[in-house]
């Protein structure tokens, strides 16, 4: 009786040790990803701030005009904090950014965070829409091409992907406007409607810029997934699944796709900076009041704090997306190959 009791008491401890051992690789990946993301963020923001400081822009001289005395310029530079050492200014800037304080515009005196808060949802909507279209088109095309390897569908998907990958986003945007706004007037030429004002109009105005921005990423995802999935479908565990009588759909989506999706998600990670940066360019073509328009106006004025704030938010978006994809890919790569 005592032996049974001891084994019963030891069983939960063994289960806890097993759970801890199985959770350790995931925690290690998450920890390494966080450290890498923070390091990249700090280096990128430091370089961004250094470029702004090296631009030579003197807001005091511009704001006060030619009649200003040197004393007036020095006083305004002191007010902006430009007379302090570079490292001190960077530390103050990045510390304030963590708490949401990005400083104020040199010319409008509006807090940079307020200006970005108004423009950020526009850019985020376009980038998210482009990511969604890229995933849908890429995964659908890659799966269809893989399961019809060598067939007509495979050749069509390959040809469309090759063409789509060579078309720049701004060229695709212009072509889509000519086709679906003028020749076939289905979507608005330009403008942006907030979702809280009209959800349907918000979705409609996002279609063309999102599709234009998603073509390159969707094509790369389709090619990567097609190659990976073809190789996975030839593995022994897939043959075992067929022998067990599993249906083609279950074999592809339940057993092969989770394993083969790693390279496709890696391709999305490579395109993440382009999707975020491309949203800034695409929204200018479609006349949307996003981060691109904000940064463009600020750059023309020499409003360094606004430009730096936009770049910081863009860098943060890219780093966060990359970190999330890295964790997802690491978990996908650990999928067990089983025909059960």
From TrEMBL:
One of its GO terms (cellular component) is plasma membrane. Gene3D superfamilies: MetI-like. GO terms for biological process: transmembrane transport. Keywords: Cell membrane, Membrane, Transmembrane, Transmembrane helix, Transport. Residues 120-329 form the ABC transmembrane type-1 domain. It is a multi-pass membrane protein. The keyword Heme does not apply. SUPFAM superfamilies: MetI-like (SSF161098). It is found in: Cell membrane. The chain crosses the membrane at residues 29-54, 124-147, 159-187, 199-219, 275-294, 306-329. It holds the Pfam family BPD_transp_1. Belongs to the binding-protein-dependent transport system permease family. This is Peptide/nickel transport system permease protein. It comes from Microbacterium hydrocarbonoxydans.
